[in-house]
Design brief:
Elements lengths: L12 H13 L2 H8 L3 H15 L4 E3 L4 E3 L1 H21 L10 E8 H7 L4 H7 L3 E8 L12 E4 L8 E15 L1 H7 L7 H5 L2 E3 L13 H4 L7 E2 L3 H9 L4 E5 H4 L6 E3 L5 E10 L6 H16 L1 H4 L5
Parallel strand pairs: 3-4, 3-5, 7-8, 7-9
Antiparallel strand pairs: 1-2, 5-11, 6-9, 6-10, 6-11
Helix pairs in contact: 1-2, 1-3, 1-4, 2-3
Length: 307
């Protein structure tokens, strides 16, 4: 349901401020604390605003309040109003900056090994914005408004989302020198099947089909040491447990690992995904611009030149 045109007639800024605080905090109590009032007052202001608009702005969940489609549409307008008010308060200088929370869902490796290094720059540009970097084995749902931006391993085929390629990246085999000294370096990919211990994902716990790597090295390869976590796989490799596939931005950054068959690379892509109803919110536009800039500046980290 879309917000009715009557929204432009709403003149009670305190109710809109309450709405904005709830949208940012996700809970009435936390929103009330931010404004210095109790949750009952926040609920009363929200109900009054919804009555004026003739629209339900939030769904009640176990975790708190989640924006409805009408709420998402209103949020775009109210954030623009809040930004304008902030600019006026600053004497027209435009230094009010972004506020609220930006939640980005990424794969574990990209979030912890690549993106975390870029966070200080973003934080310096937007000191009033809280950044949630959710780097895990799996992705939060944009459709359910669990995240504002997702950096995914495959392009979504359905849902109320907008996606574009963020960057290609490469992966290859790595091992610790100690492992290769003990077991010998494989001379051809077929040697991996019989003479070496492989580290990889647990097949039935893969959260994306693009994580199936080993068949691209040599048909029929399977891992004997397995984990759902790419960071755990990295630690196994660094500890000399075997040979396994890592993104080059992880493997090349670890001086305790060497590439095995360095000329054999696997190509994958990251996709930048946002919800179609919130993609134009100021904080989300800022997050997208930051991600696009980061991968452009660090292109050789994601796609290192041939050795």
């Amino acid at each position: 349901m879309r917000v009715k045109p009557a929204i432009m007639q709403v003149n009670d800024w305190s109710d809109l401020q309450a709405f904005l605080a709830i949208a940012r905090a996700g809970q009435l109590a936390r929103a009330g604390a931010a404004l210095g009032v109790d949750a009952t007052t926040m609920g009363r202001r929200l109900r009054r605003l919804e009555a004026r608009l003739g629209a339900t702005l939030f769904e009640q969940t176990r975790e708190g309040q989640v924006l409805t489609e009408a709420g998402e549409a209103l949020l775009v307008r109210v954030e623009a109003m809040a930004q304008a008010a902030s600019t006026i308060a600053e004497g027209g200088s435009g230094t009010g900056g972004l506020s609220g929370t930006l939640r980005i869902s990424t794969s574990e490796g990209f979030g912890s090994w690549f993106l975390a290094r870029e966070v200080p720059q973003f934080a310096a540009l937007h000191p009033g914005l809280t950044l949630d970097l959710v780097a895990s084995s799996g992705f939060l749902s944009l459709s359910k408004r669990e995240a504002d931006i997702a950096v995914m391993l495959s392009r979504p085929k359905a849902g109320p989302v907008v996606s574009r390629k963020l960057s290609d990246y490469t992966l290859r085999l790595y091992a610790a020198p100690a492992y290769l000294r003990e077991h010998g370096a494989p001379q051809r990919p077929a040697d991996l099947a019989s003479d070496h211990r492989l580290v990889g994902y647990i097949p039935d716990l893969l959260y994306d089909p693009s994580l199936r790597y080993l068949d691209e090295i040599h048909p029929g390869l399977s891992a004997g040491l397995r984990s759902s976590s790419i960071n755990a796989q990295h630690r196994l490799l660094a500890g000399g447990a075997g040979i396994g596939v890592l993104p080059c931005f992880m493997g090349d950054a670890d001086p305790g690992l060497v590439a095995v068959f360095p000329e054999r690379r696997i190509l994958r892509s990251f996709w930048l995904v946002t919800h179609k109803d919130t993609q134009n919110l100021a904080r989300i536009r800022a997050g997208k611009d930051w991600l696009l800039d980061a991968v452009q500046r660090q292109r050789e980290v994601l796609l290192p030149p041939a050795d």
